[in-house]
Specification:
Helix content is about 45%, strand content about 15%. Strands 3-4-2-1-5-6-7-10-9-8 form a 10-stranded mixed beta sheet, with helices on both faces. Helix 8 crosses helix 11 and helix 11 packs across helix 12. It binds adenosine-5'-diphosphate-glucose. Adenosine-5'-diphosphate-glucose binds next to helix 1 and helix 12.
Length: about 475
Amino acid sequence: MSRLVVFSNRVPLGDKPSGGLVVALNDTMISQGGLWVGTETLESAPTENGAQLKPHPGATFERLTMGLTRDEHAQYYLGYSNSVLWPLFHGRADLLDVSTGQFSTYKAVNRRLAELSAPHLRPSDTIWIQDYHLIPLAMELRALGVSNPIGFFLHIPFPVASNIRALSDNAELLDWFSAYDLVGLQTQRDVANFIGAFRSLGHGELLPDGRIRYNNRFVRVASFPIGIDAEAFRAAAEQSPEMPEITTTAQKVMVGVDRLDYSKGLPHRLKGFQAFLREHGAVSDRITFLQIAPPTREDVQAYKDIRRELEQLSGEVNGEFGDIGYMPVQYIHRSIQRERLAGLFRRADIALVTPLNDGMNLVAKEYVAAQDPEDPGVLILSRFAGAAEQLAEGAILINPYDAASISEAIATAVAMPLEARQARHAAMWDQLTRYDNDWWTGTFLRTLGKAALSRRTSESFFIAAGE
Ligand code: ADQ
């Protein structure tokens, strides 16, 4: 059997992995073994580049990391990855923060990672590269003669062509993607954007079999919505301890859990709750809205701004509607353990998930998985989350830009009868268990195997035909 080699910016080094990508792949690596390669920012030698990969023994699979200097961390990770690609791919070209050196460092880090990893690869390996930090990696590996099947999965949305035009070097982006055998995206919407970008920016040709031909390279693109281990999350929720945080006089608890990121629509969420309290507060049961939002990427200005805005808004809502013994918004600014998170989800009557743009949104899936099927809570979900393609039948879909839409959804959720809640939950549970984490990895890797075979056949045909 072929060995699986995963590349991602971060490799799980502690015992408890966190973050959607790492959680999803960690289970696969534990069950089938393999090699996981990533980066790590060096603390001790800030001016030295890592000259070789560092092994991290102690897991059931092999782990190797490449050290990044402080400067590389600033230019490659905080810079090009998170101040250019992240806002651009989330449709926020207005937040692009381009500065000199980012683009060349981003490419240089990818090149060095390819050079240091190539000697560790075997001819029969299947290579799976993850997310926007490492888009050029396949092209760099190919340049070193690596001809293994190489797949890529993008965890965030794929942007429309007009947004890609905001990248000065957008032609290179298409070159990078075309070095893969298979590009996996979260949704059908992303696949349409990907094909559109190749057609309008790069004169790519869509072949009848669904592949894109671009500069005589062949890349297959398809959607593989990332899943969770729903049964395991449900079991964790059943066994989870009580949640002291939600001891409250309110009769209903509504929850939100997100990294503190501008793509998650957190201010919109609070404005929607504020609209609900203004419209329905007097007649409805008291609701506490518990928002857990640990900070991330705090060195990036846009993240400092969103934190300030959110603190101000929650103070405003509490000032307007708070009472002795009742605080409408509880805003917790830290991470909590997955087991406790599962218990919190199960206890919450409503989840409010309002991203302005999101690849998938695993919190929405985890909330559904954690529910008691006999007495489930209600999911309110933005139509801009990738998860909305799968969960439309069971969730209340909202437009996060419209506070009245959120307010009405909360009112509907509060009043929803048991039977309707059960039926909606059953529809979503069916999707979660059908398209779970094993489905995601298994389907992607099978499709990659076939795509690599057909690429070899087509490319040798074009070489033979002298094209
Ligand atoms: P994220 O943007 O990080 O992921 P999400 O899909 O919601 O968003 O995954 C976050 C993960 O972190 C979830 O498993 C959640 O439980 C956990 N988490 C969040 N806040 C937490 C907290 N306060 N304490 C503990 N755990 C917390 C990116 C993309 C998404 C895509 C995933 C996976 O942006 O669109 O769904 O990758 O592909």
